[in-house]
Amino acid sequence: MQVKSDQIRQSGKRKFGLRYFSRDDAGSVVVEFAVLAIPFSLLVFAILESCISFAGNQLLMNATDEVARELRTGQVRVRDLDKDEKKNIAFVRGKVCEKIEIIVSKGCPGLLVDLKSYSTFTEAADARIKFKNDDVDDSDFGVELGKSGTINQLRTFYRWPVMTDFLRKSMSNLKGGNTLHFASVTWQNEPFDD
User: Fold this and answer.
1) CA 135 – CA 44 distance, rounded (Å)
2) Which residue, 125, 126, 139, 147, is CA-closest to 191?
3) What is the model's pTM?
C-alpha cells in the first residue's frame, strides 16, 4: 500500500512539475504561455504606471490645497515674504515640496509653482497654461500674494517621469518622456490682520 502511494506522488510531480513542462513534445504549452505572457505583462505594467502616476497627481493636489489653506487663513502673509522674487518662489515651492517628497525625488525636480493675485474670480479663471517647445513656459511664474480679502490663485506643476519605456511614448505629453501633473486652487483671503 505504501509503495503505490509513493508512486502516485512521484507521478503527480512529473505531470505538474517543471520537468513535464519542458519535456512537452507538442510545444503548444510554451507557445500559449508566450502568447499570453507578453500582453499580460504589458497590461500589468500599464496598470501599475497609471496607478502610481494618479497617486502622484493626487498627492500634488492635496499639497497644493494645504499650502493654499495656509495662505488663505493668514498663516503665511505678505509681510512674511521676502522682497526677492526668487526667495519667495523657493519658499512656496519648498512648502509644496515637503508635502510631496514622499513619492517624488528629493528636492522635487520638475516642480513649478505660480502664485498670483487677481482683482476678480473671472480674471483668475481666464489664466491659461502656456507651453513652449513641448514644455510648460514658466517665464511669467512668480509669487505675488495679495493682502486680506484679495483673490489669489496657486498653480502647481510637476513634470512626472514615465518609468516604463514602452509606455513613455503613449503616456508622456512633455519633452523628455514626462507627463504633466497640475493642480490649481483659487480663493479669497480671509479678513486677517495684514
Assistant:
1) 29
2) 147
3) 0.78
